[in-house]
Specification:
alpha/beta; eight-stranded mixed beta sheet; 19 strands; 18% strand; elongated
Length: 569
């Protein structure tokens, strides 16, 4: 459960920085923190890291550039539409909440800038009726979305809510659909939406706009769910596990993209907002092309030697490539259906200034890393995460670069139970339909359909010592030779090396590697991949890549050439 920090003295637990008590005491670790230091730390306990709640004005002040935030007016809504009375008339409760907070309702709408980049934000305030979603809050969220649409700006939603506002009955329920439809319009317009989940976020808010954003991040310890813990425990008659519904739990289960400490929010949000900054048509003009496109210019190694080099543990991983040639990378996690697959990594960054979505298989170097990443073999969740990120790239109009390095899709029992074949098939269809440029690079092993699920691209490139095959040579030898020891023979017969695949037209070009293999000079290897990706994207941007051209590329595979037709009886 998230801990809170309570001021020592007369200040309330939700005091703003300007009302800060001289000393505060963390209810989690009981440490005393000097009030001014606590304010500088953005109300985060320096001992245990507990993130105390912020009211909406404080959140806006901490996120936005100084003096950049300006209020956006929200249309008037019905007040007390049901004349609801419980222990006290709802109208009186409203008046008290407004007097206490100085706000009309639970959401403030502003437009402004974060590190100079424009956006519109809707910020919820838990002090006002527990941030509950009523007609005024729903109208504010919808107004924020409509303002972002009119401004052509990204939308940030900061959530803090116990759920729907019961005192407004079915009209409160309708706000879930109203706000969801507003976000759908931003999807159709190709505008970035981001949700910052703070503690707590429950009920109708979690089940509508909060989880519909392109990117959903959470503060440490923040809780989110449809039903609260007490309701769940009463319903199932069981005690919930420690940390249930916390941000860390949500990340582990693929339900949020990441957990961001409050001190890093501005910088990380700014990186995301940079996705709207597209360079001109001369982008990449000065980059030299390292790719070899004539198979006769390649030194063809024995296929089995290529297999061994492609599996070399020291070859750069996807995250190392990303770290070398992407600026401002923001990794995104999860399939949004309950799982996170560590064998696939992906996110948004800037390749020499061009916003791109990079997705790759991730292995590792040590045994522990390989085990934690399942040896780069994705589960269905990995392919569904890939599909989610590719759809986001299509929405935002940014190119996709994939880095392929996998023995194949994970063949385990749970993978079959969760639809491995379907997940791969959906990716093949989706990649063929993406309306943005797609470049795929086989950097290591290209194992079967598990590799092809990231390989339906406008340009398919391959590192010189990589492999790409319908099956592993060991598997082929075991099936056809009835002896896995014949793997080297099978490798030759499968023509899985770069030179053979270039002759077949399966790949469009080969990226040279340092002498001895990419593991001998990882910096040079990664720079060659970067230059190859830049040149390929430069050409595709100039030619306006389209799904039709990509489909024609794959449509031609296996067709006989004219000279072959002439030799037929």
């Amino acid at each position: 459960m998230t801990t809170t920090v309570h001021p020592v003295g007369n200040a309330t637990a939700n005091a703003t920085a300007g009302e800060q008590a001289a000393w505060v005491s963390c209810s989690g670790c009981r440490s005393l923190v000097y009030g001014k230091r606590y304010a500088r730390l953005l109300r985060v306990c320096p001992e245990c890291g507990a993130h105390a709640r912020l009211d909406a004005p404080s959140r806006i002040e901490q996120l936005f550039d100084a003096s950049s935030a300006e209020s956006v007016p929200v249309r008037p809504t019905q007040i007390n539409p049901l004349d609801f009375v419980d222990q006290q008339p709802y109208a009186e409760r409203l008046q008290q909440a407004r007097a206490r907070t100085g706000q009309q309702d639970a959401v403030l709408v502003v437009r402004g800038r974060i590190e100079g980049r424009p956006l519109v934000a809707a910020v919820m305030d838990f002090r006002f009726f527990g941030g509950s979603l009523g007609v005024a809050a729903g109208e504010a969220i919808t107004t924020a979305a409509e303002t972002a649409l009119a401004d052509r700006s990204p939308l940030l939603i900061v959530t803090a809510s116990g759920g729907a506002r019961m005192q407004e009955g079915a009209l409160s329920l309708m706000q879930m659909a109203k706000t969801s439809n507003a976000l759908a319009e931003l999807d159709e317009a190709g505008l970035l939406t981001v949700t910052l989940v703070t503690d707590p976020t429950y009920g109708g808010v979690a089940a509508s706009f909060a989880t519909l954003s392109d990117v959903v991040v959470a503060e440490p310890g923040a809780r989110m769910g449809f039903a609260g813990p007490r309701v769940i425990e009463q319903t199932i008659g069981q005690q919930l596990p420690e940390g249930f519904q916390t941000a860390e739990f949500l990340l582990e289960h693929g339900l949020v993209d990441d957990v961001w400490p409050r001190t890093e929010l501005r910088a990380r949000l700014s990186r995301l907002l940079a996705v709207a900054e597209v360079p001109g048509p001369d982008w990449g003009g000065g980059e030299s092309d390292p790719v070899v496109r004539d198979s006769q210019l390649l030194d063809q190694l024995p296929a089995w030697e290529c297999v061994q080099l492609s599996r070399e543990a020291g070859r750069p991983t996807a995250l190392e490539h990303i770290g070398y040639w992407l600026d401002g990378f923001v990794e995104l996690h999860g399939d949004r259906a309950g799982e996170e697959c560590p064998a696939v990594v992906g996110g948004i960054g800037r390749l020499d200034g061009l916003p791109v979505m990079v997705i790759g298989h991730q292995k590792g170097h040590t045994t522990a890393e390989l085990v934690s990443r399942n040896f780069g073999m994705p589960s269905p969740a990995g392919y569904r995460k890939t599909a989610r990120l590719m759809r986001l790239a299509a929405k935002l109009g940014i190119p996709v670069v994939t880095l392929i390095d996998t023995p194949g899709a994970y063949p385990g029992l749970t993978a079959e139970e969760k639809g491995q074949s379907n997940a791969i098939a959906e990716n093949l269809r989706l990649m063929g339909s993406l309306p943005v440029p797609v470049v795929a690079v086989v950097t290591g092993e290209g194992g079967s359909g598990g590799a092809l699920a990231l390989g339906v691209a406008d340009r398919v490139l391959m590192c010189a010592n990589a492999t790409y095959s319908v099956i592993s040579p060991e598997g082929c030898a075991a099936i056809l030779w009835k002896n896995a020891a014949e793997a080297a023979v099978a490798a030759d017969e499968l023509a899985l090396d770069a030179a053979s695949l270039l002759r077949l037209g399966v790949v469009d070009g080969v990226i040279p590697e340092p002498e001895g293999g990419g593991h001998t000079d990882t910096t040079a290897m990664s720079d060659a991949v970067r230059r190859a990706a830049v040149v390929a994207l430069r050409e595709l941007r100039a030619a306006t890549a389209s799904p039709a051209a990509r489909r024609r590329r794959f449509r031609a595979f296996g067709l006989a050439h004219d000279h072959e037709l002439g030799t037929r009886p």
